[in-house]
Amino acid sequence: MSDAKVFLVDDDESFCSVVTSLLKSVKIQAETFYSPKDFLKAFEGKSEHIHNACVILDMRLPEISGLDVLEKITADPLCPPVIMLTAHADVPSAVRAMKSGAFDFIEKPFSGQSLVDLVQKAIDADRAKRGKIRQTRTLMARLATLSKREREVLDLVVAGKASKQIAEELGISIHTVDNHRAHIMSKMHTDSLADLVRAAVSAKAKGP
Fold it and tell me: pLDDT tens for residues 147-172?
């Protein structure tokens, strides 16, 4: 996981040093922020370019609470998974953290292995999420290349209409419908009608 990265936000310098060394031992880079304001400034507008990452965020921080930082960053759909740290068993705060989009939380003190396992799980989740986002963007871009008539044909194909029914509904020939469908499949990069329907349904579900 040499390309993996962790953003560590904690005002305890000695703790950050230990965690950084621990992550380095498993080839995970760590960038440390002792100030939540510094982290927010560095993070703002950068999520698009962050990959294979997660955030380790202390619940109790100076200036801004960890929960407030969490709520600010998770408003961004591209925010990496956030692991909350707490030195106190605080059930209400843990509940709020999970409701605010935390990936998980871990209570200090913890074993190095438990933190490494959780970080790797979070990074895997980030990689999977970004893979889905790329797939959705690709589908939406392909859908945007269709002409108005091709979109009409596609909508009717997805609705389960046969070429004859589509031809009657649109007032065109079956041959023209089949030509449109072939062009649609080419533009959507699908090899079968089933693949086309799956791609169209996925794009429509995630698109505007």
Answer: 999 999 999 998 999 999 999 999 99
State the pairing for strand pair 104-107/82-86: parallel
Every domain range in the chain assigned CATH 1.10.10.10: 145-206
61's tokens = 């921080």
Global pTM value: 0.74
Specify the amino acid at residue 151.
R
Helices 112-144 and 193-206: angle between axes, nearest 10 degrees = 110
Reported as type and span, the H/E element at residue 24 is: helix 13-25
Judge if the upstream peptide bond of residue 62 is cis by omega within 30 degrees of 0.
no
- Rounded CA-CA distance 109/90 in Å is 14
Out of 1.10.10.60, 1.10.10.10, 1.10.3730.10, 3.40.630.10, the CATH code matching 145-206 is 1.10.10.10
Residues 183-198: tens digit of each pLDDT = 999 999 888 888 888 8
Give me the architecture of the 5-131 domain, per CATH: 3-Layer(aba) Sandwich (3.40)
Edge-to-edge strand ranges of the sheet holding 104-107: 29-33, 5-9, 53-58, 82-86, 104-107
CA dist., res. 109 & res. 12, Å (int): 13
Distance (Å, rounded) from C-alpha 82 to C-alpha 169? 51
